[in-house]
Amino acid sequence: MAARLIALTDDRKRDAQVAFTATTKAKAHRQVGPGGRSVKLERLVKATDRSSISALLKAHGTLEAISQQLVDGDPEIDLGQAGRRLRNPARVHIRPDGSVLYAARVLRVVIGPDGLEKSRGDFLDVEATVGEDRPALPWTGKLLTADEVVRKYALNRAFQLRHVNGLTFDFLHQIAKTLHNADKMLRVGAGPKGQSPLIFSLNGAPFFGFLDGRVDGDAYRLILHLSNLELKNAP
């Protein structure tokens, strides 16, 4: 993944543009066949619209009738299609009756914690809050221990911050040193006070950010951990 730029502010209110890239982990395991050769994954046809439970209910009327059909034969399996390889499949939307939907109106639906719909309306574009053309992310001063962060938030993404020249090397090294000496993570957000979520692309998902820094002599590591899920005790 090519590096992108992000503007960042340190504890002395200096800001600079630095690079950030997604962190990757080496795969610890791989799937192999009986001869030790790598497994090739394929997409296969599992069922068709004629063998779905809704189609069987429409054809036979009741679950009891379907049960008898399963005893007498295999109506849930399309022997002519099941198991066929899919080559360059296209995703389509379908109506409840199974017909293809060629045009759809995109709506924003808000679901409450109780699972009930709270509101719906036209979807409005949400601008990114992070990027080289966006204001620098402020130094919030909100320092949390790693234990506090992992107990309150589910961390599901991470970016590594990298310098782009000698000046930004010193800039990032100092931030990493500050966090390393404090043994804390910095809460990171967008907006003048860092209270807005981090959004990395148009209509992208909003995230909480937590910056972790470590130094070893002249070497440093800065990881921006992201979370879109706050952990709360059940009522």
Question: What descriptive keywords fit this protein?
Answer:
4 helices, 18% helix, 25% strand, Ku70, Chain: A, Domain 2, single chain, two-stranded antiparallel ribbon, 235 residues, alpha+beta
Biggest sheet, strands in spatial order?
Answer: 1-2-8-11-10-9-7
Name given to the CATH architecture of the domain at 4-23 and 127-227: Beta Barrel
Given helix and strand content, the structural type is: alpha+beta
Model regions low in confidence, pLDDT < 50 over at least 5 residues: none
Largest sheet: 7 strands, antiparallel
CATH topology of the domain at 4-23 and 127-227: Ku70, Chain: A, Domain 2
- Taken from the alpha-carbon principal axes, the silhouette is elongated
Q: What is the arithmetic mean of pLDDT? A: 89
Helix and strand pattern = EEHHEEEEEHEHEEE
The rounded distance between the terminal residues' Cα atoms is: 42 Å
CATH classification, class level of the domain at 4-23 and 127-227: Mainly Beta
Helix content range of the residues, please? 10-25%
What Rg, in angstroms, do the CA atoms define?
Answer: 26 Å
Binned strand content: 25-35%
Tell me the number of strands.
11
Number of helices: 4
